[in-house]
Amino acid sequence: MPRTLVGDRNKQYRHLRILVSGSAAIEEHGAEEVSKILKVSLPTARKYIRNPEEMKCKQLLKLAQSLHVPIADLRESIRY
């Protein structure tokens, strides 16, 4: 039986996920390029693209800068 994610976790970081994965797709950066940018392994880069809330702040800023994401949009999408 398939599992479904239930809870506020998905809603809370939805905008951040769309921002990171959408920017990576627009810039045509796959997991390989993201892993080089962040200097992490390929499976970790894939995990970060799917769940950007698991990234450290420095990694998120570095990725956002390389994907040309405006800092105002990034701040707006982060929830504390």
Structural class: mainly alpha
Distance between the first and last residues' Cα: 34 Å
Mean pLDDT: 83
Major sheet characteristics = none
What amount of the residues lies in strands? under 5%
Quick take:
The chain is mainly alpha-helical. Helix content is 64%, strand content 0%.
What does this structure look like?
- It is a single chain.
- By secondary structure, this protein is mainly alpha-helical.
- Helices cover 64% and strands 0% of the residues.
- The N and C termini lie far apart (34 Å).
- The relative contact order is 0.19.
- The mean pLDDT is 83.
Annotate the secondary structure layout.
Blueprint: H1 9-12, H2 14-26, H3 31-38, H4 42-50, H5 57-66, H6 71-77
Helix pairs in contact: 3-4
Characteristics of this structure?
single chain, 80 residues, mainly alpha, globular
